[in-house]
Specification:
Low-confidence stretches: none
Structural class: alpha/beta
Number of helices: 9
Largest sheet: 11 strands, mixed
Helix content: 25-40%
Mean pLDDT: 94
Strand content: 15-25%
C-alpha cells in the first residue's frame, strides 16, 4: 500500500481562497492522503464552505480551535492529529499543482531523503501570475539553511516515519523556518529539492513577504528566541542572513517572462 501523506492546513477567515486550496489537494494524482484543516476561530463563511466539502470527502477533517491561537499552534494541532507516514503543509490560500505529491514522494524514496522541497511560483490575491519563479537550491544542509529560509513551507514534505512528528515553536511568524531546521538537523542528511515548480504561493497585501521590515524583525527572533542565540550571535547571523539574501537568495527569484 502506498504511504499516507498528512496535509496540514491552518485557516483563518479563508472564505475567498479555501475552496480552491482544498480542490488543489483533491486533484492530486497521488490519492493516499488525508487533509487536516485547522480553523483558528474564523468569523466569515470558512467553516460553512469546508463542511460542505467534507460531506463528500471523508479523508478531509476539520479541527476547530477554541480560541484564536495563531498559525504555529494550529499547525501543531494538525501534526498531533496526523496519521501519515509523511507530513506536508499547505496554507489556506496557497495551491498545489496536481503532480506535486506524486513527484515528491517518488523523489524522496528514490533519493532516500527525509526532507524534500521544490520550486514554486507567486500569484496575486486574485490568482493571477506575478511572473516570478522561486527556484529551489539543489540541497540544504543545516548550516546552509541556518543562513536563510530557503524552503517555501507550501513545498516541504518530511518523512514522519523516520523523523517522528516535528512541530513548530510558538512564534508568531517564521515558525516554519524553525520546523524545517529541526527536521534537517534530526535527519542528519541534507534536504533535497525538485527543481520543478509544483506549487503557487499567494502574495497578499497583508502578508509578511510584502512587509520587509517585519520580515527582518521576525528573522531576528528566529535566531534570538527560536534558537536561543545570544544578542550578539543573533546580530551576527542577521548580517549573514542579509548577505545571503542579497547575494544568493535574490538570484533564485526568476522572471518567468524570460523563460
Amino acid at each position: 500500500m502506498k504511504p499516507l501523506v498528512s496535509i496540514i492546513t491552518p485557516m483563518f477567515n479563508s472564505e475567498a481562497f479555501i475552496s480552491e486550496t482544498i480542490n488543489s489537494v483533491i486533484n492530486q494524482t497521488y490519492k493516499n492522503w488525508e487533509l487536516l484543516l485547522i480553523d483558528d476561530c474564523s468569523t466569515d463563511n470558512t467553516i460553512d464552505i469546508v463542511e460542505q466539502i467534507i460531506a463528500k470527502h471523508p479523508n478531509i477533517k476539520l479541527i476547530k480551535n477554541e480560541t484564536n491561537s495563531g498559525a504555529a499552534i494550529s499547525r501543531n494541532k494538525g501534526i498531533e492529529a496526523s496519521q501519515g507516514n509523511y507530513i506536508a503543509f499547505l496554507d489556506g490560500d496557497d495551491l498545489w499543482k496536481p503532480e506535486k505529491l506524486a513527484k515528491q514522494l517518488a523523489f524522496m524514496q528514490a533519493e532516500n531523503c527525509d526532507v524534500c522541497f521544490c520550486s514554486y511560483e507567486q500569484i496575486d490575491e486574485g490568482g493571477k501570475p506575478l511572473n516570478k519563479l522561486i527556484k529551489a537550491l539543489p540541497e540544504l544542509t543545516f548550516t546552509k539553511y541556518l543562513k536563510s529560509n530557503y524552503i517555501g513551507n507550501l513545498t516541504g514534505v518530511y518523512n514522519a516515519e523516520v523523523l517522528g512528528k516535528i512541530k513548530a515553536p510558538n512564534l508568531r511568524k517564521r515558525q516554519d523556518w524553525l520546523l524545517w531546521l529541526s527536521a534537517i538537523k534530526k535527519s542528519g542528511k541534507p534536504a533535497k529539492s525538485i527543481p520543478e515548480s509544483l506549487a503557487y504561493y499567494r502574495v497578499r497585501k497583508d502578508s509578511m513577504s510584502a512587509n520587509k521590515i517585519n520580515l527582518l524583525k521576525y528573522n531576528y527572533l528566529v535566531y534570538r528566541k527560536g534558537l536561543g542565540f545570544s544578542v550578539l550571535k543573533s546580530v551576527y547571523y542577521m548580517l549573514i542572513f542579509l548577505k545571503e539574501h542579497f547575494f544568493v537568495k535574490s538570484k533564485l527569484v526568476i522572471s518567468t517572462k524570460t523563460i
